[in-house]
Specification:
By secondary structure, the chain is an alpha+beta fold. 35% of the residues lie in helices and 20% in strands. The strands form two sheets. Strands 1, 2, 3, 4, 5, 6 and 7 form a seven-stranded antiparallel beta sheet that branches. The protein is globular.
């Protein structure tokens, strides 16, 4: 591990990508949902007797998960290679151990959801699989007490960065690569496919209780979060490589 005063050399960065090459190809997934009250459909806060922190605390006791802490604050749970973490606005994220087949990831989600269901019922909470909070906007969603998120909120400069952090949810996939050539092929293909995937699975037109006029307000939020970090990679060429 590097000490803070050590210089990070270019070769060390390159090595990280090369070490990622795997012969056993698997796929990983992060699955985010928005916790809302079953009554008012408002986003459930972190604090409070029936808040998301207490939900995590209760689930940890029932299903034998360990706490993930930021200082003294519970910001998630872990069991073996699976984690449940909170995004900035309390979005509920399952991060699953990579599997060879997508059907195995699906089975893992269903198993965790089954164990979680009685506690969600007790807390009158529903996890919505939508791209943006349909009723509560970021002005009424507090950041959870995770230090990195508060630093991010100050750093990201896009006009919809607060929307992205506090209101949106999605599914991210991690796809193994066996070589540098394989990685570049998959990276290029993933970027070319993403506009179509965004359109096919768009489900975030309702925000703040009104029709925004967009099929995917989540996509709009990401495109207005930080141009240095977000958007599609379009400048492909035959010599593209890890460097």
């Amino acid at each position: 591990m590097l000490k803070t005063e050590e210089r990070l050399e270019y070769g060390q960065l390159l090595d990280e990508f090369l070490l990622g090459c795997k012969t056993d190809q698997r796929i990983g997934m992060e699955f985010e949902r928005i916790p809302v009250s079953i009554y008012g459909k408002n986003v459930v806060p972190y604090e409070g007797e029936y808040g998301v922190c207490e939900l995590l605390r209760e689930f940890a006791k029932v299903d034998n998960w360990d706490y993930i802490l930021d200082g003294d604050e519970i910001i998630g749970l872990k069991k073996l290679h699976d984690t449940i973490t909170l995004e900035p606005g309390c979005q509920f994220e399952l991060s699953l151990e990579p599997e060879k087949y997508i059907k195995d990831l699906k089975s893992k989600i269903e198993s965790i959801d089954s164990a979680l269901a009685p506690i969600l019922d007790d807390f009158d909470i529903k996890l919505l699989g939508v791209g943006v909070s349909p009723k509560t906007t970021y002005k009424n969603i507090k950041l959870i007490p995770k230090k990195r998120y508060h630093l991010m909120a100050k750093y990201l400069w896009g006009i919809l960065s607060d929307v992205m952090m506090r209101e949106t949810a999605g599914i991210q996939v991690g796809i193994d690569f066996k070589s540098e050539v394989d990685a570049m092929k998959k990276f290029r293909l993933a970027n070319l496919m993403m506009p179509f995937a965004t359109a096919m699975f768009a489900n975030s037109k309702i925000r703040g209780g009104v029709d925004t006029g967009y099929k995917s307000f989540r996509a709009l939020a990401w495109l207005n979060t930080d141009n240095e970090r977000c958007g599609f990679a379009l400048d492909f060429n035959k010599n593209m490589c890890f460097k």
